[in-house]
Specification:
It is built from 1 helix and 4 strands. It has about 70 residues and is α+β, with helices and mostly antiparallel strands. This is IS66 family insertion sequence element accessory protein TnpB.
């Protein structure tokens, strides 16, 4: 799985605090229900939780979803 991260046409930063315990289905439901956006339109969705050092990303690569998780160290 090689992903060209400069390829997404849109990058959306989801405002507010998201429960980062959610997986692919839960995050996809947040996008579909709250924002009414299509998940497969070559977009990267970024979520942040209660803490400011942890982030999740959701990206459709054409074959399936990629769930990204980043935790910054101090």
């Amino acid at each position: 799985m090689l992903v060209n991260w400069s390829a997404p046409q849109h990058v959306y930063i989801v405002c507010g605090k998201t429960d980062l315990r959610k997986g692919i289905d839960g995050l996809a439901m947040v996008i579909a229900e709250n924002y009414g956006l299509e998940l497969d339109n070559d977009s990267l969705f970024l979520f942040c939780g209660n803490r400011n050092d942890r982030f999740k990303g959701l990206y459709w690569d054409g074959e399936g979803f990629i769930l990204l998780y980043k935790r910054f160290e101090k």
